[in-house]
Write the structure tokens for this entry.
Amino acid sequence: AHLPLERRLAKRLWLVAHGYGARTEGVKRHIRLPQEQLALMLGVSRQSMNKALRALETQGIIARRYGAIELVDMAALGLAAGVA
């Protein structure tokens, strides 16, 4: 909770993409997760979540699609999340 929102968001997206450590068929590149649900997961408003998503999109890490988030640059996402 003490990390900046963008970093917490990047980490959450990275974890979702990797199945939270469970054995999966691979890394998900498209995540169907509404902004409202992401905001609830991280304990912030939807407006704050939208701003953080926009920041990651501006950096070329993600692309927002209707009802989904596309993970464009997994290496950059890992760096932003602090896991790579």
